[in-house]
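Hello forum,

I keep getting stuck at the same step: I have a sequence, I want structure tokens, and every attempt I make locally crashes halfway through. Rather than fight my setup again tonight, could one of you with a working pipeline run this one for me? It's a single chain of 198 residues.
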Amino acid sequence: MSLFLAMCLFALSMSISPGPVNLICLSTGVNYGLRRALPFVSGATIGFSLLLALVGLGIGVLAEHQQLLDLLGFAGAGFIGYIGVKIAISDPILKPVRATQPGFGQGFLLQWLNPKAWIACLSGVSAFNLAGDYPLLTLFVAIYFFICYASIASWALVGVRLGRWIVTPSKLQIFNRLMGGALVTVSVYLLILQLAMA
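Reply #2:
Ran it on my machine without issues. Output:
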């Protein structure tokens, strides 16, 4: 298998699999539609790509400092829980207001606080031996950027399709509570893992 194909498959498997970013994007697609979900998709993709590039350039050595990893773990669990609560309690009556809609900044920040993103970056850089190989790192970041964008956007598109069945405020409220509850559950699980490792 060629290195290019291996990189594509790695990026796809890590980007398309369920995680906090994809659940938020699904919920955003249901509640606001694809066009209004794209700022979050863009923020998450750019945030991840920058994180991947910086890990490849050497900030991955920061991961050797347990206190920093602990801080990132607690901050990530807290931020994921916060967004989960915001989704769970959001108003089921759709209004053209962007206040509760996840946007570019939340997508960008969430990737830096997302344990799945750090694992993907550290394991990708290690698996493909990219540290110090700048041309290969650049190729990997470029591949990951496009695959990550398409993968996260596909979750928003699934949300849009699902939103066609969720046509009443009560169904939307149930969906938002399920998605918010799922994110809070992920947050609590990550917090328990973090406490167990501390």
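The first helix runs from residue 3 to 16. If your local run keeps crashing, start a new thread with the error log.
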